[in-house]
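Consider today's protein:

***
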Amino acid sequence: MNKYFKRIGSENKELHEVFGLDPNKYVCSNGDKILVVKYFYDLCEGMDGMACCGYERKAFICGNVYFIEQYADWSGPVMYGPFSIRE
């Protein structure tokens, strides 16, 4: 992951950071902002702090590569990639 993303701000990581990539605390390795695309299911939106609200998928895009993060309350986050973006 360090090849594609770099942390910004404090090096002190918080416990909740093990639950997925936080685009507010990371940027692309070249310094560009991570483009986040929400797709498929996003049943947890607006349900902050509530357990078992569902699951969601997001794409994190940096340059010509992207990662897919699938999150479910019962399993936590799973990150797939990198995948190439074809032009």
Observations:
- DSSP finds no helices and six strands in the chain.
- The chain has a mean pLDDT of 79.
- The CA atoms of residues 38 and 58 lie 4 Å apart.
- The beta strands are 5-7, 26-28, 35-42, 55-62, 65-72, 76-84.
